[in-house]
Amino acid sequence: MSRRAKGLDRLIPEAGLEMNAIDIKRFNFNDGETVRLTTKRGSVDVKISESDLPPEGVMFLPFHFTESPANRLTSSVMDPVSKTPIYKTSAARIEKIN
Questions:
Q1: Which of 2, 73, 76, 78 has a CB 3.0–4.6 Å from the CB of 39, allowing a cystine?
Q2: How many beta carbons lie within 10 A of that of residue 69, not counting itself?
Q3: Tens of pLDDT along 71-88?
Q4: Tens digit of pLDDT for each residue in 56-69?
């Protein structure tokens, strides 16, 4: 639904893999560089977006952009306690695209 909001689309027209500046430097990436994000369920290519929000060692990829479908990388398995999908977190590998 949020992709249909013209105002939001003008503000943020494409997905960005939000990463802490420390991690960007550690992995020798550049802000705006396209990288491949891979989990055991699949891969997507996405641009890095430097952000102060995720702490060191954590990346954030919004999942409402169809051109970088984060949902393809996660699982819809239900948490046994909360009965909600556990797709909020996943171990991932990030690599440069040559």
A1: 73
A2: 16
A3: 667 777 787 888 877 656
A4: 999 988 776 565 56
- Read off the pLDDT of residues 18-48 as tens digits, 9 standing for 90 and up: 999 999 999 999 999 999 999 888 888 999 9
Q: What is the DSSP string of 1-32?
A: -GGG-HHHHHH--S-EEEE-HHHHHHTT--TT
Q: Express the helix, strand and coil content of the chain in percent, nearest 5 each.
A: 20, 30, 55
Find out whether 52 and 23 touch, Cβ atoms under 8 Å: no
Within 8 A by CB and 6+ apart from 80, the residues are none
**Encoded tokens for 44:** 């997507």
